[in-house]
Each structure stands twice: as C-alpha cells, then as structure tokens.
C-alpha cells in the first residue's frame, strides 16, 4: 500500500490551503514517484488542473498518473 499526499500553504496569515489523497497500488515496487519543480509555482491559489506531481507505473499496464491541483 502506498499513500501520497501534497500540501500547499501560503506565508500570509489565515491563507493556508491543503489537499491530500490516498492511493493504493497492488505492486508498489513498480511505482516511480517524481516531484519535479514547477516553473513559477508560488504559495497561494493555483489554477485548477495544474500538474504538481507525476506517478509512473513501470509495469507497463498503466503508464502515468497525474497529481493535479484541484
């Protein structure tokens, strides 16, 4: 089992935002997680659907999952 979560917060008081997700995989040894730098990413509101992380399944069945800002 594998759990992935992402957290974002602002430096300004009372403007914290948090999103998290739990994902289960039958064969986690085939999973590669990449948290690449997002150009221009700053604390605060982000556009819906913005890619913030990539999870790739190396088994060949499903190639890629995208973790997006909601």
Mean pLDDT: 59
Intertermini distance: 24 Å
Categorize the overall geometry.
Answer: elongated
The total domain count is 1
Structural class: mainly beta
Strand order of the largest sheet: 3-4-5
The main β sheet shows up as: 3 strands, antiparallel
Q: Could you explain the architecture of this structure?
A:
0% of the residues lie in helices and 43% in strands. The protein is mainly beta and 70 residues long. It has one domain (2-68). The strands form two sheets. A three-stranded antiparallel sheet has the order 3-4-5, with no helix packed on it. The protein has a two-stranded antiparallel sheet with strand order 1-2. β1 and β2 (17-23) form a beta hairpin.
Which helices and strands, and how do they pair?
Layout: E1 2-8, E2 17-23, E3 31-34, E4 51-57, E5 64-68
Antiparallel strand pairs: 1-2, 3-4, 4-5
Summarize the structure.
The chain has 70 residues and is mostly beta strands.
Key traits:
mainly beta; 3-stranded antiparallel β-sheet; two-stranded antiparallel sheet; single chain; disordered N terminus; 5 strands
């Amino acid at each position: 089992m594998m759990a992935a979560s992402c957290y974002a917060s602002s430096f300004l008081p009372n403007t914290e935002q948090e999103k998290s997700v739990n994902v289960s995989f039958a064969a986690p040894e085939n999973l590669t997680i990449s948290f690449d730098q997002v150009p221009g990413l700053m604390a605060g509101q982000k556009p819906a659907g913005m890619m913030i992380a990539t999870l790739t399944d190396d088994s060949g069945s499903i190639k890629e999952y995208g973790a997006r800002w909601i």
